[in-house]
Amino acid sequence: GAVVSQHPxxxxxxxxxxxxxxxxxxxxxxxxxxxxRQFPKQSLMLMATSNEGSKATYEQGVEKDKFLINHASLTLxxxxxxxxxxxDSSFYICSADTQREQYFGPGTRLTVT
Amino acid sequence: xxxxxxxxxxxxxxxxxxxxxxxxxxxxxxxxxMWYRQYxxxxxxxxxxxxxxxxxEDGRFTAQVDKSSKxxxxxxxxxxxxxxxxxxxxxxxxxxxxxxxxxGTRLFxxx
Lengths: 113, 111
Prior knowledge:
The complex is a heterodimer of chains A (113) and B (111).
Chain A: E1 4-7, E2 10-13, E3 19-25, E4 32-38, E5 45-51, E6 57-58, E7 67-73, E8 76-81, E9 90-98, E10 101-104, E11 108-112
Parallel strand pairs in A: 2-11
Antiparallel strand pairs in A: 1-3, 3-8, 4-5, 4-9, 5-6, 7-8, 9-10, 9-11
Chain B: E1 4-5, E2 11-14, E3 19-25, E4 30-38, E5 45-51, E6 54-58, E7 61-66, E8 71-76, E9 85-93, E10 99-101, E11 105-110
């Protein structure tokens, strides 16, 4: 099946710093990638839809200046959490779309101290 | 009212039991239905993918869709401790890419 990777898998950063998370589709090209965040024991919440070569579409309530998304190629999308705060601590998951199926990355656990 | 309702559980069953997981939805535009399995601290993995009403079987897993009732189910036969995970239902409409997820049901299969 299709494989999506994320890097890093776990990151700890200090409040006020920025963190970049990479999402790669390893064996297929994805024109659309999605970014989710997940709090403990809660479902995935879509943050934004990322289309290759164009600006990301953010869900209501998600600050686009705080969560910068870049979809530079058909196999790579990045999420940068700028000026991170402890409330940004969460599990961030990307997925890549292939027809009507989504394949998820393994997730990145962000802890902001 | 949420677009997708799923009982978060937890659901605890003995090994070998038949497990039934369910979701209801309110938007009749949903046409594609998925079940994902998510182990702790991992990303979800696609288990089953169905389109239209009816049953789809894959090994020990059977996905069932009843569009008239807006109700979908996932059955797990001969459940194993390795099936212990959170199961998320998800659905997509025909017009767009946005997928709506249920809250996920935590399943524990006891040896």
